[in-house]
Structures are given as C-alpha cells and as structure tokens.
Amino acid sequence: MSFDLSVIPHKNIILAVTGGIAAYKSAILVRRLKDYGFDVRVVMTQGAQAFITPLTFQALSGNPVHTELLDPEAEAGMGHIELARWADLILVAPASCDSIAKFANGLADDLLSTLYLATKAPVWVAPAMNQQMWAAKATQRNLQTLVEDGVHVIMPDAGEQACGDVGLGRMPEPEDLARQVAAYFHKAQRAIAEKFGLLAGKRVTITAGPTREAIDPVRYISNHSTGKMGFALAAACYAAGAKVTLVAGPVSLDTPNGVQRINVSSAMQMLDVSMDQLQQGCDIFIATAAVADYRVAQVAEHKIKKAGDELAVSLVKNPDIVATIAQQQQRPFMVGFAAETQNVEQYAAGKLVAKKLDMIACNDVSRPDIGFASDENAMTVFFAQSYHMNKRELEKASKQEISQQLVESIADALRRRL
C-alpha cells in the first residue's frame, strides 16, 4: 500500500528502543519513518545501548538521542515532560519484556517508563523477545493490561530467533511498522477531510492522460500527455474529502491512495466509462485528459505492411467527452482543461462558452518549463458568467500545489452555485 505524502500532515514520532537484538532493526525503522515525512526523535534505555549506539540513531534521525531521565540541558531539567508534550505518537520497538512490565505496573524509574506515564500521545508497542518469554503468563497478563489501558500492541512475527528457538517473538520488519504508522495518521487525516474538507461527500470523476486510437494491431495515434496533472488533482480531491474515480488513459503513474482507477485506451472507451460514472452519480466532472480529436475510420485487422512512400489513413472525428457530459440533463459541475500553444486565454474562454462548462483551466504547453511531462504548471482559470467570479491566475508551482488551488477554486464556485 502506498500513501500520498501530501495528505499526511507533519507529525512527531518518538521511537523508543529497548534492550534486545532486534534493536538493529530500529535503525532501519528510523529511516523508513522519515521517508514518510515524520520528524523522529529516539529514546534509548540502558539495555538498548548495549546493542546499538546512540550515535547511530542521531545520525539517522538528525536529532539528539535521549537516554537520561534528568537532562541538565533540557528546560528546568525536565526533558521527559518536554518530550511527552512534543510527541504525536510513541512507538516502542523493540519493546522488551521488562519495559512492558514497567508500563503495565506504572513504574517510572527511567526516561522511557516516565515518558509513558507523562504523555497524552497514543503509545504503540512492538514486543520482541524469546518465544517462551512471550508465552509466559506474566507477559500475557501485562500485555492485556496495556490493551485495557489503550495501548496499541503490534503482534510479533513468528520464525527463527537469535537464540535458536522458533516461535512468536520476532519484531515485525521496519517497513511494515512504518507503513502502519503512516496508515494510522493517513486514516485520521482522511476522517478530518471527510468531515471538514472542501469537497466533503462529493463524488468526483476525473479523466486523465492521453487516448490511443488504433491504426492496426501494433500502431496508434496519440499525444504527449503524461496524466500527471489529472493524477495530482485526483489526490487533491481525495484529500479534500471527495470520493474520486480516475478514468485513466495509458500512463505509467501509480494510482493515488484512496482513488478508484479505471483504465481505458481509446476516446470511445473513455466516453463510455464517463457516461457510466454519470449514471452512477457524479457531482463534479473534471476533464484533464488529452483526448484524441480523431480516430481511424477503419482499423486494420492485421499489421499494415510497408507499400510505397505514402500511406493514406482516413480519420473520423471523436465525440467531445466533456461537451457530451455537459449536455446531459443531470449534469455535474463541469471543469474543462485547455492545453494550448498560442492564444491560450482566448481559446480557453471560447471553449468555456461553447462547451457549456462551469470552469476551465488553461495552460501554455509550448513553454518548456510547464509543458507535457513537467512536474510544474501555471494556469489561468475562467468561470462561467453566472458565477460572477473573476479569472484566477495560478502562478508557476508544483502540480500538487496547483491541484490544491484548483480544488479551492472548485469549492468557491460550488458555494456560489447553491
């Protein structure tokens, strides 16, 4: 499972490392957490320092490592209170049998056990120990106490252990633990977006990428669209609380998290899927796809062989997808895109009226810095006259930032529509 990192807000993670051979995995875990954009601070017990040095974690996290309960360099010597307030989540990995027992019985004789009692942040423990220690009644009793106290216990993996035993007790892999933390915050942010997001509860259909119009079984007519803008918009709409369906032409992009993707090839296929989405219910239709204007009148059944210096292919006009959707009786809020190489704003304003759109965003793809395949864009947005909104200039920025501004523009127009 992958996550759109722009959806996960900045969060502070305390990774607490206790004594055990699995402590070496915690070094990798720091890197994986930082890959998700988390700020990580490491707390180590004395036992942990017997297996791996604080310097390793300092280098990997970019932050000082905390090992002492009373830190003379902390404000008023109360480092544990500062850390307790700083953390958005405390992950104890590996969590030794001893640390679990301390938590369960309310002991506070070192930095970690004191931090556990002093924090309001969620606490997760990833136990790692000998399989017999894991199975011991006292350990299971302590774990049950932690669960009742609201601690999230991550079950250990089974397998061969450093001592030679085989059974439950191995710490899960760092990649899996980091992914679970990211999923936790992503889910929480998603819940907020659904409740308060700009497009909360809206059903959005987005077309993206090029279409391919077959000439024969091995050749086709297409264009340079990469689909990046449409995919960025899909992620932004989802982050704003919408239910998003992405109708994608042939592109090599990962599906944004939480977005339903339907792959198509030709313009006719894209139209059929778009009409089906309209029938299922669609509040907003965003047409970013670079749909081929023409298709081959008669697709050859077999590969066309070379014969002479010229090849004549008869073309017929494809239906205009966005105009077709806009003409439906139960039309959604219609957003068009205009990728032009000259007279950009003039052409875009004409399309807005001719296709009966609510909003259109245009850009100059002849510019080398924002053309096809670029990770940045700059756009001008026009609105239908009934909205009484001035055009908006979106200055050059990443396509993710442009997408967020477009979502804001859509939300503003929708409020005026009501």
Automatic annotation (TrEMBL):
**Which SUPFAM superfamilies does the record associate with it?**
CoaB-like, Homo-oligomeric flavin-containing Cys decarboxylases, HFCD
Q: Where is the DNA/pantothenate metabolism flavoprotein C-terminal domain?
A: 199-412
Region described as Phosphopantothenoylcysteine decarboxylase: 1-203
Q: Where is the active site?
A: 163 (proton donor)
The pathway this protein participates in, as annotated, is:
Cofactor biosynthesis; coenzyme A biosynthesis; CoA from (R)-pantothenate: step 3/5; Cofactor biosynthesis; coenzyme A biosynthesis; CoA from (R)-pantothenate: step 2/5
The cofactors it requires, by name, are: FMN; Mg(2+)
Q: Where is the Flavoprotein domain?
A: 11-182
MF GO annotations? phosphopantothenate--cysteine ligase activity; phosphopantothenoylcysteine decarboxylase activity
Please share the entry's free-text remark on the cofactor: Binds 1 FMN per subunit.
Q: Where is this region: Phosphopantothenate--cysteine ligase?
A: 204-418
Gene3D superfamilies in the record, alphabetically? CoaB-like, Flavin prenyltransferase-like
Do you know which InterPro entries this protein is assigned to?
A: CoaB-like_sf, CoaBC, DNA/pantothenate-metab_flavo_C, Flavin_trans-like, Flavoprotein
Binding-site list for CTP: 293, 303, 319-322, 337, 351, 355
- What family is this? In the N-terminal section; belongs to the HFCD (homo-oligomeric flavin containing Cys decarboxylase) superfamily. In the C-terminal section; belongs to the PPC synthetase family.
Protein name per Swiss-Prot or TrEMBL: Coenzyme A biosynthesis bifunctional protein CoaBC
